[in-house]
């Protein structure tokens, strides 16, 4: 059984976060340490520690991350100029929180690397 992270508490609203979107599959909230004017984390409500733990049954839920990313990019006004989606895996990928999450970054030209 995977160990819960702070993100499970955010999903259950046990600790505060600036939640922008939530449904039965995913939750999206602003990163506490933003590296761009828009820096949002989009996560499955189910605890999957890393991309290495993804299974075929998760495909629908993980697809939802992208439709929510598209909606939030529109909402943030960054769709036209562009943005970046990042998922880090394990130490070499720069992963710090072991509950998979998609970073959505935008609002300025991003340069080569940002998170990790
Ligand atoms: P990773 O390096 O694992 O891909 O990214 C984890 C991200 O989670 C980091 O960008 C970090 O700033 C963010 N983060 C860590 N703890 C919290 C928290 O308690 N609240 C929020 N909103 N973001 C967090």
TrEMBL record:
Pfam families: HIT (PF01230). Its EC number is 3.9.1.-. It is an enzyme of class 3 (hydrolase). Residues 6-115 form the HIT domain. GO terms for molecular function: hydrolase activity. NCBIfam families: PRK10687.1 (NF007965). This is Purine nucleoside phosphoramidase. It comes from Photobacterium atrarenae.
């Amino acid at each position: 059984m995977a160990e819960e992270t702070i993100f499970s508490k955010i999903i259950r609203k046990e600790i505060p976060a600036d939640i922008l979107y939530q449904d039965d599959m995913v939750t999206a909230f602003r990163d506490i340490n933003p590296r761009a004017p828009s820096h949002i984390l989009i996560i499955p409500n189910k605890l999957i520690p890393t991309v290495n733990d993804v299974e075929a049954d998760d495909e629908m839920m993980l697809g939802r991350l992208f439709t929510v990313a598209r909606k939030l990019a529109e909402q943030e006004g960054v769709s036209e100029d562009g943005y970046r989606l990042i998922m880090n895996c394990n130490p070499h990928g720069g992963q710090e929180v072991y509950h998979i999450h998609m970073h959505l970054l935008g609002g300025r030209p991003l340069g080569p690397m940002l998170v990790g």
